[in-house]
Amino acid sequence: MERMHLLFAVGISWMRAMLLRLRGAIVGAKVSIDSGCRFVRAESLTLGQRVTLEQFVYLKCVTESARLTLGSWSFLGRGVEVDCQGSINIGEHVLISPGCFITDHNHGIIEGKRIDQQACTVGDIRIEDDVWVGANAVILPAVTIGRGAVVGAGAVVSHDVAANTIVAGVPARVIGHRK
Questions:
Q1: Which of 83, 116, 134, 148 is disulfide-compatible with 153, CB 3.0–4.6 A?
Q2: Residue 45, domain extent
Q3: Is 7's pLDDT higher than 60?
């Protein structure tokens, strides 16, 4: 019975990937998309082979020119939200734990204008290969996270993170290095 359930789940995931392709996304082989995932402007998405999206992942491209890329073998945990207006590039073998929020834009804060009247500022995000982002971390605009870096759970990343560096806290700061 368990084998039948597994085969059914794989088939449903395959169908979700096929539907995403039909909506204009570039989707690699053996991508796994769990239930409750949402996609805004699917035509702006590129998912490499064997990408895994757990339940309730939300990938939102807010403009026609937005580009959101997830490299092969990358994993987005339950409830991850990626909000893209410019460009967000997530490398290969990246693990983004449940509850993370990644955005490449902010609202303006000029005095004398209501917040909803202000233009957004955009700064591209790049997460290089072999990065682990801990649960509920937030990655803000104009950030590069270097290859092999680790972002601690709950961290708020507002500046670049060097390769093989471990950061944690609010705001995120260096607490160690991978050996």
A1: 134
A2: 2-177
A3: no
